[in-house]
Structure formats: structure tokens, C-alpha cells
Design a protein that fits this description.
heterodimer, A: 237 residues, alpha/beta, Rossmann fold, 2 domains, six-stranded mixed β-sheet, four-stranded antiparallel β-sheet, 10 helices, 38% helix, globular, B: 420 residues, mainly alpha, two-stranded antiparallel sheet, two-stranded antiparallel ribbon, 4 strands, disordered N terminus
């Protein structure tokens, strides 16, 4: 099981009396990109929040064999899980540079500067704007900043919550190309939650489709892409 | 296990509502018409093809802001669209002409003022300079820490009482007494900051206001510390060395120089704190505390220490106050004083050190202009109206109403649009 970065078994999550996740089982192999597809309200965002223990959950989540179901959010982050939340969650009144430095807040090494340069290479637009306030960036740039900031804590697993939300198609394509580049060049494992099934499945190795808090369908990405049910529901074919 | 959502930070006042029209009127008033715009980003018409890739976003309000390659020109480029507006932010912070004018005016005043002032005026002006620290204290808590404080007058008072206690009852030297005043206020501030761990926004404002209201009756009951109802006179005097002169004016000048140095040092220190790692965490907590916590920022430590730093600045102002006037009484610190400190901080500009200086300065300048106008006689009914301007409160109130409309981000917005 050592090549399994993350594994969820019978994962339930609830907000008050409302049960949002009703027993999910899924796996994220090391180095892979796994996508979770689903309509609004299916429980995609909740799945990511449940993994980071940001809502009330039952079930088992293991990371590289260790049970992290009861770990605190901050400890899960320290284990190398970085969460890029929906809506980006950047610090609008901080400069791009300061945003990145907060991402490296817990790091004590002196390679922070080198890492900044590295992510600037992948997101050159951020370098141009390093001294601008994050709130003044466009939506696409803010998404890049949120990802770069998450990378600053040197995660081994990146959780991406609908990075395409509210972005123009061209920008989404560019963004996904960079995600693919990241995965290829650094071997970073990614768990991606999306509605934009086309692009997501192009990039992903494996996919799950959830409906009403349960897994309706799963399989290798290219197989899902050709599945009639998926095509009808998400690809508009 | 918390149910915290990822909060989308509330739009801060004036975030996106600066219209080009408002800017234009500002420049029209404060800059000679022939000057280039005093903003730090001259408009450029050329736009390279790279902007097409990602800087252009259909959902934006008709404006894309883009900066030139930092190394090449260091000049930001603003591409203005038709209808909408956004904040225009340069890629590098530069000192605009308005800032130079402000700096020169301040420098000239700091030199000329003591030379042309009477003993009383010199002391009053020094008190005003010291007040910058109290306003800066509010600014740290509210502008950098995101915690509204309507009770900073309490920390000024506590600093004054503690310094008086140290210098008289404990017979400590002045240097230590002043530091003790700041430190003690800082400790009280950390305690007062505890509610800020659980409550935010308008509720925290009310809690701090409550503390400010409670302070006066409370201080009357601890005469050993506060001198009770009548206050305490400070016996020790900060006497200049004999070579400095022995006249009252020389003593006033000595106090002025000491206060000026302390205020300058405190501002420099504050600047460094804000730029440091804990300062960055402080600002991140302000913008989005859940996100900051996820990246490992300790919210409790950050909030409490922010409040402590902020309160010790106010305490330092109080401690310097008893150097200038050897008397401290709860009567000088009604809760209204705290409100004035808060209003001055907002007026000048939250989240900017120089904003606090500017807030104090503009309040003084306008109140003096008001005094001058109020003294003009022989104008009939108009004169009667102008007499209103003699009242400091009236002028300050009008300033608050007017400037909040023109400069929602504070007066400092006139100099630069960029906050740290």
C-alpha cells in the first residue's frame, strides 16, 4: 500500500443534520492525477474538506498508510497536503510575494527563495506582479497564486477545488496545461474536483463521478471520457 | 474538526469603488494642472502581446491592470477599459511628487516649529507629535491586524499611570519608566486582546468600547496607581543636561527632541515588525484567518501579540505625555478620546504608517485653519457661521464626513494606492 498516497474508506460527512457524503471509497495513487466529477451539490467540495478534517466526518482516511481521519487540519497540512480552496482564498491585501511567503510559513529551511523562483517559472505572470496586491490580480492570476502559494509548503498531495470556476475558457486551458506540467515535472500527486469534465479527464489518470454523496461511476480517465453516461451528463455530447 | 467555511474576505471599504472621476478630482485639487498624474504609474499606451494570454479577463469590470517587466522598466502599465474601474497598482513602489512635498513640509515644520514657538506652543505641538503613536497603535490593531479597537485611550492612560508610578513610586530612571509604561500597556493590551480571539468585527468594536467606558470609574477606585478621582501629579522631572540650557524653552526643546526621537524609533521598529515574518502573518490573519491558519499561522499568538504591540505604542504615547505635562488623571481619558483616536487612524489611512502621521497632521491643520477663519470679524451672518469653525469638534466632524466620501481608504490614498 505504500504507493497509495491517499485512501478513503466509507467516508461520510455531514453539516449539522444534513448528510452530504454517504460512504465514499476512493484512492489516489502516488504521482497520479485523480479527478472527482459531479454536479453542483453532489459533495465535491465537501469531499476535499472532509479529507482535511474541516467538517464532521466518519470513516477512514489514510495517507501513505497512516490514519489521518482524526488529525487536525494544520497537522494534515504539515504532512504535505495542500488545499487550494474554491474561491482561491488568497490574501487580497498582501502582495503576491507575501502571499507566497505565507505559504512557506512553517518552513525553516533557506530554500524558500529558490522555490519562489521555481514557481515563477511555471507561472511567469506572477513574477511580473510580485509586488502587486493579490486582490488586484485577475481571477486567473489569483488561481495561479493560490496554487503557487499551496506549492510553497512543498506538498506531496495537492487538493484542487474547482480551479476553473469563474474563469474564461482560454485561461482554464492554460491553467490546466500548467497543472499537467507540474504533475509531469515534479511528480506531484493531485486530487482535482471539477465540473469541467473535458479538460479534467484529459489531464487525469483516473476519475470518480459522484452523485448525491455517493460514487456513481469510476474508472480510468480515458475510459470515463468515452462512457455514454458521463458524456451525456458532463461533456455535453 | 471545525465547521469553518473558507471565507471570502469581505470587501474592505473602498476596495474597488474608487472611480477614475474621484481620482481626477483629487489630482485636480492637489496637483498643479500641468503636472503628470502623481500616481506612481504613468499610463502607457503600448501593450505587448503577452497581455492577451492571461491578463485579459472577460469577467473583469472592463479594466485589466498589468505591469511591465519589473527589471526592464519598473513602470507599471494600466490599461483602462471603458466603463469599470479598479485599483491601479504599480509593480514597484515609488515615491510620488506629492509624497516628496509632504516629506519636505514635515521636515521644514519639524525644524522651524520649535524655533518659532513659545514654550506653551512647543509643548502643545510636542503632545500632538506624541499622539501619532497612539493613532499608530489603533492602526496596528485595526489596519494591520483587522481587529477594530475603540478603546485605545485606555492604553494611553495605562501607559501614563504606569510610567508615573515607575518614575515616582519606584524611583526608576526616566528611560526605564517610559519603557515600563509601554510594556505595562502592552501586557494589558494582550489581556484585552483575548476577546478578539473569539469575536470579530462590530462585536469586537463594542467590547473594546465597553472597556473604554468602564475605564474611568475603574481608575477612580485604584488611587495608588491612578491618583484616584483627582489624578496624580508627577514629581520627577526630566531635566536637560546643563550644557543644553536651563531656560524653560530649552527644557521644552529637550523634551521635544526626546519625543521626536522616540516617535521616530517607534515608527521604524513598527515598520520592521510589519515587514517581518510575524508581521506578514498578522496581515494574512487580517485578510483571511482560516487560510492563514491552514498555512500554519498560530491565530491565538498572532492576534494577542498584535494587540500587545498596538497597545504598547499607545502606552508609549501616554508615558511620553507625562514627560511633557507632569500630571496624569483619568479625567483626561473619557471614552470619547478613544473614538477620536480611532477616527484619526481611519481618516489618515489604515494599513499605512504614514497614514497615522497624516491623520494627526490633517486634523491639526484644519482645526487651526478653522481657528483663524473663526476669528475673522466684520462679516455679518457669514462671520457668525465662521465662528463655528473655531470649535475643534465641529471641524473634526466635518472632516470625517467629507474625507470619508472622498478618500474611503484614508488620506494616504492620495499619495499611493498601495498598502503594505
Amino acid at each position: 500500500m505504500t504507493d497509495m498516497m491517499l485512501k478513503a474508506e466509507d467516508l461520510h460527512a455531514r453539516y449539522g443534520a444534513v448528510e452530504v457524503l454517504r460512504g465514499l471509497d476512493f484512492e489516489v495513487p502516488d504521482g497520479n492525477v485523480v479527478v472527482i466529477l459531479g454536479a453542483n451539490g453532489a459533495g465535491k467540495t465537501t469531499t476535499l474538506r472532509a479529507l482535511c478534517n474541516m467538517c464532521t466526518t466518519t470513516g477512514t482516511v489514510t495517507m501513505e498508510g497512516d490514519d489521518i481521519s482524526r488529525a487536525k487540519t494544520a497537522d494534515i497540512v504539515r504532512r504535505g497536503v495542500a488545499h487550494v480552496p474554491q474561491g482561491r482564498g488568497t490574501f487580497p491585501e498582501l502582495s503576491v510575494m507575501d502571499n507566497l511567503k505565507i505559504g512557506a510559513y512553517t518552513r525553516k529551511d533557506n530554500e524558500v527563495g529558490a522555490d519562489v523562483d521555481r514557481w515563477f517559472e511555471i507561472f511567469p505572470r506572477l513574477e511580473e506582479r510580485r509586488d502587486q496586491l493579490a486582490g488586484s490580480l485577475s481571477g486567473g492570476e489569483q488561481q495561479m497564486l493560490a496554487v503557487a502559494r499551496a506549492l510553497m509548503c512543498r506538498p506531496r498531495l495537492l487538493l484542487l477545488d474547482e480551479p476553473s470556476l469563474g474563469l474564461a475558457p482560454l485561461i482554464i486551458e492554460d491553467l490546466f496545461e500548467r497543472f499537467a506540467q507540474l504533475n509531469k515535472e515534479t511528480g506531484l500527486t493531485m486530487l482535482l474536483v471539477e465540473q469541467n469534465a473535458n479538460l479534467a479527464l484529459d489531464m487525469a489518470d483516473y476519475g470518480y463521478v459522484i452523485e448525491s454523496g455517493e460514487i456513481a461511476l469510476h474508472g480510468p480517465a480515458d475510459q470515463l471520457k468515452n462512457d455514454p453516461a458521463v458524456q451525456e451528463a458532463y461533456l455535453g455530447a | 474538526m471545525s465547521d469553518d467555511n473558507w471565507p471570502t474576505p469581505l470587501p474592505r471599504p473602498g476596495d474597488d469603488d474608487e472611480t477614475p472621476g474621484a481620482d481626477a478630482s483629487v489630482f485636480a485639487v492637489f496637483a498643479p494642472p500641468d503636472d503628470p498624474p502623481p500616481s506612481d504609474e504613468p499610463l502607457e499606451s503600448g501593450e505587448s502581446s503577452e497581455a492577451a494570454a492571461l491578463g485579459v479577463e472577460p469577467s473583469g469590470a472592463g479594466l485589466s491592470v498589468r505591469s511591465g517587466p519589473p527589471a526592464a522598466s519598473g513602470v507599471g502599465t494600466a490599461v483602462l477599459g471603458a466603463g469599470g474601474a479598479d485599483r491601479v497598482v504599480g509593480s514597484r513602489r515609488r515615491i510620488g511628487p506629492l509624497s516628496w512635498i509632504g516629506a519636505v513640509l514635515l521636515g521644514v515644520w519639524l525644524v522651524a516649529m520649535p524655533l518659532t514657538s513659545s514654550v506653551t506652543e512647543l509643548r502643545q505641538n510636542t503632545q500632538i507629535i506624541v499622539m501619532v503613536l497612539a493613532v499608530l497603535g489603533v492602526n496596528i490593531a485595526t489596519g494591520y491586524g483587522g481587529m477594530i479597537s475603540l478603546g485605545h485611550g485606555v492604553f494611553v492612560a495605562v501607559g501614563a499611570f504606569a510610567a508615573a508610578y515607575a518614575v515616582d513610586d519606584l524611583a526608576l530612571p526616566w528611560v526605564l519608566s517610559i519603557l515600563a509604561g509601554a510594556a505595562f500597556a502592552g501586557v494589558i493590551g494582550a489581556l484585552v486582546g483575548l476577546p478578539a480571539l473569539r469575536i470579530k468585527g462590530i462585536h469586537l468594536a463594542l467590547v473594546t468600547l465597553g472597556l473604554a467606558i468602564v475605564f474611568q470609574p475603574l481608575a477612580k477606585r485604584v488611587p495608588a496607581f491612578s491618583g484616584g478621582v483627582s489624578g496624580r501629579a508627577v514629581g520627577a522631572e526630566l531635566v536637560p543636561p546643563s550644557w543644553f540650557g536651563t531656560s524653560r524653552w530649552a527644557e521644552g526643546l529637550y523634551h521635544y527632541l526626546i519625543c521626536l526621537v522616540v516617535v521616530g524609533l517607534a515608527m521604524w521598529l513598527t515598520h520592521n515588525i510589519i515587514k517581518s515574518r510575524p508581521g506578514r502573518a498578522m496581515r494574512a490573519v487580517r485578510d483571511n484567518d482560516t487560510a492563514a491558519a491552514v498555512y500554519g499561522v498560530n491565530l491565538v499568538a498572532s492576534r494577542v501579540s498584535t494587540f500587545a504591540v498596538s497597545a504598547s505604542l499607545a502606552g508609549l504615547a501616554g508615558a511620553l505625555g507625562i514627560v511633557l505635562v507632569p500630571f496624569a488623571s483619568q479625567e483626561s481619558y473619557p471614552f470619547q478620546e478613544s473614538l477620536v483616536l480611532y477616527a484619526t487612524a481611519v481618516l489618515g489611512g489604515l494599513g499605512s504608517l504614514w497614514g497615522s502621521v497624516l491623520g494627526v497632521a490633517i486634523r491639526e491643520v484644519f482645526s487651526r485653519i478653522g481657528e483663524l477663519l473663526g476669528d475673522v470679524s466684520g462679516l455679518g451672518p457669514l462671520g457668525e457661521f465662521l465662528r463655528l469653525l473655531d470649535e475643534e469638534q465641529f471641524v473634526f466632524g466635518v472632516l470625517l464626513v467629507a474625507l470619508t466620501f472622498v478618500f474611503p481608504r484614508g488620506l494616504i490614498g492620495m499619495f499611493n494606492r498601495r498598502k503594505t
